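tool_call: predict_structure(chain=1)
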Amino acid sequence: MNIRRRIIPSVFIVLFLVSVFSPCVKAIDKSLVLYFPFDEVKANAVSDQSANGFIGKLVGGVEFTKDGKYGGALSFDGTSGFVRVEDDDKLDLEGSYTVMAWAYPTMVDGGFRWIADKSNTNNDLNYILGISSNNGWRFITRLLTNDLLDATVVNPKIWYHVAGVQDGSKNQVYLYVNGKAVVNKGNT
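tool_result:
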């Protein structure tokens, strides 16, 4: 079974990070499940810097660029490009976790665009972080009966730090944009 990772069209992604219990990283934290700094590509793949050592295979229109927020990044063509990580039970996140990325959308076109997702071909959803069809940021988790939508419009050609946080102990989900909580919701 493969995990799909669909990425915002025509975007640079610098960092994809999934962390259990830790919303930020000062050093490589042992609680990290997956961490792609995207600072280099070897053999059409990126290497996970967490202790799990996953490999992300570049599929379709994906290119490495040195023009990232902090060094290298991946640029996606907007039609076929994504990074695929083979399915693993460690990626089935529960309880408390954070999914975050630096993103630089070069266009915003009213279509739902994923930065990161963990689901399968049967639409068994774990999480999705991306841009919604109303051109705002969106975070979906299993914990919610509905997803979180930020009403703020995403503008092209601006760097954004986006983080979706699930706090399983409080049954709350939060969406942060550039370090500010823009929306939160509990499972009711």
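agent: The chain has one domain: 2-186. Proceeding to next step.
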